[in-house]
Structures are given as structure tokens and as C-alpha cells.
Hints:
10 helices, globular, TIM Barrel, 2 domains
Amino acid sequence: MLKYLALIVLLMILGSSMPSVMADGSVAAMMPKEADSFVDAIGVDSHFNYNGSPYVQMWPVIRDELVSSGIRHIRDGGRPNPEYLSRLTYLGEHGIKHAAGFDIDVTPEYIRKTLLTYAPFVDFVEPANEYDHHRTQDPNWALDLAREQQVLYNAVRADPSFHDVTVLGPALATQPLYNQLGNLEMFEDAANIHNATCNRNPGTNRNFGIAAISNDVRASTPTKPIWTTETGYTDDPSRGCAIPDDIIAKYDPRTVAERFNYGEPKIYFYQLADMPSDIAFGALGLLDADGRPKPQFTALKSLISLISDRGPDFPVKPLAISIENAPDALHHTLLEKRSGTYELLLWLEVPTWKPISANNVGGVRIPVQSASITAHVPDVSAAKYYTYDSNWQLSAAPIQISDGHIQLNVTDSISVLELK
Length: 420
């Protein structure tokens, strides 16, 4: 019994939430997560109700790119007029669910009517977006927002037909203000944050990193899961925080992996397509304003295609593996498919861009040296190693297993070691 308990503890310690893999050469069991849970964590913000925007003017192009991407969740919002509903219905019929947001002072009757109109493709609801922006006009903003949260939660949970709809808490623009909301834990299924790391790498430990922002939201939601409903990078060099697209193509897949490792069930990128009319946030798209894929869109799409494994939940099995010569910057995510195939995501969590001004406008590239490591996988008979090519597609490279050992080269782009 003691040996059994010791094994359970070991598996918990070596789970895929570890920031880096073992480096002492000993072979131990590492517990994976379901591969499809990684894919299902990826979402994107959109504005299919904005008349005059690329989302409407370029609807057929942007629609088809979204469907082809493998992304299954969008965060959108607006009054359910017929044209907007038809777009959401089309996406829903192609496996893409959407959100519903509600303003202050909505009634339970309005919430229920709206959700019935949106059904059956709505998967989460949230209260007024970044309502702390209104604190100069509404001195009681925190009390009003907390009250709306209670009304929203009670209205959704009162109707059994909405049992699959997740009720998110409020997302604030200024994260330290979560401590003014009071404890909302009993009125939400998950907390809600907006957290972009500016031009820093996804795993930065600076004050806008994942850990720091998550600590802020814990003031109002002590234990529930945390969803990130807005994150991403801009490529507009005239704006603060901008970085080049080829670096975003490295950072976006790592953003998913870092946040997934941190325990976040959903990570939404802001946003799907550029909107030139939005001066401040118009260049954060995965697509440009004409619906053409940027490198970051292609990189995410390729990763989704490789990892996707739709189906019911299943019991994952530990994998015996160790990593030799692992640098401190080596991070990983271990995933298992229903076939028994393992996908080990590997990357160096280091910055590739350095800001050169106090206001974050402009910067220079940081050369990143790759790391040579050895994976010891004694129970594996076949392996492939996927790395990004110059077109941001994951391509399998030749690989050999010698006495259970595999030599690998890891960079600041995610690579995937597939093991059978």
C-alpha cells in the first residue's frame, strides 16, 4: 500500500503542469493530459456583428479560414439580429461554439430569452466586459457588477436546458481592482481574465505575467478555474508592444502551452482578424483585414491539426521518460491520444524580442541558441519529431531510437515528439 501511495504522489509531481522536464537522467513516470483537451482550450475573439468590419465585409473568406483552422470556440457578442444569428448558426453547425455577453441591469427574463435565441451553440456567458472602465461614470461600479454577476449566474443555473453553459465571472481592464468585487466564487463557474504580456515572451515572470495576473483575480475567485478570454500580440510597429509576425508565430502556440500547463481550461486570442478601424487594437488579428492568414494563424492551425483527437474522455496512462541535458528554459506539455500515441511538446521559454524604448515602441531581436537534449523512452518503439518549417507548418523530421534514447534539437518554437 505504501509503495502504491508513493507512486500516486510521484505521478502527481511529474504531471504535465511542471514548468520543465526532468534532467537527472533517471526514468520516471510522467502523467499526460488528454490531447484533445489542449486543442479544445484554444479560442479566439471575433466581431461578426460589426457592420462595416472585415468580419462582415469579408465574411465568406474569414468564415472559411476559421472553420479550416480547427478552432472550436469564439468569443463574440451582440444583439441577436437575423444576420448575426445566421453567421453564428453557420459556425455552430461546423463545430464552432460562441459566447453571450450581458450588460448591467439585465433581467433574468432577458437572459433566458437571449440564450434560447442563441441556442444550441452558446457555450459560455459573461457579465459586462471590462466594466471598471466606467468607474468614473458609475462610482458604484464594483457593487453593480457583482450584482449583475449574481443575476446572471442564478438565471442560467435556474434553467436545466442551460446546464452545459459555463458562467464566467467579470473580466476587468485593471487587474488589481478585482479586490473590490468581493468574493464571487459562488456565483461563477470560472474566473475571467484579460492578460496580454505586451512584447514579452508568454512565460515571462514580470508583473504582467500569468502568475501575477492570476494572483490578482484570486481576490474575487479564490479557487475556481481561470479562463483567459483575451490575450495576444500586435504586429503594428507604430503601436506599443508590437513584435514581428514570425515571432508571434513562436509565441502564440507557446501562449497556449504555458497557460494550459498553468491549469487554464480556455485561452482566447484577441482577435481573429485585423480591424483597421480600431486604432488601438486593430492589428492583433491572426488573419489580416482581407482574411489572409498570418504566420501565427498557420502555426496554430498546424499544431491543432497534429494534436486534435476528438472523442469522449478516457483514462490517460503514465509514460516512462526522462530528459538528459535539459536546460532550465526547457518547458514541455505531455499529451496522450486515444490510440495510445503520446505527443510531447517541447520548447525553450525564452524571450526572442527586446523592447528598446520605455513606452514599448520598437525593439530588437534576441538570438536564441537551440538546445541539444536526449530523451530516454525505454518503452517506446517508434517516434517522429515535428518541427516548424519556413511556412509555419509542422513537418516530421527523420529520427532514430537507439537503446531507448532519442537525440533532439529544441528551439524557441514548439516542436512535437510523437511516441508510440
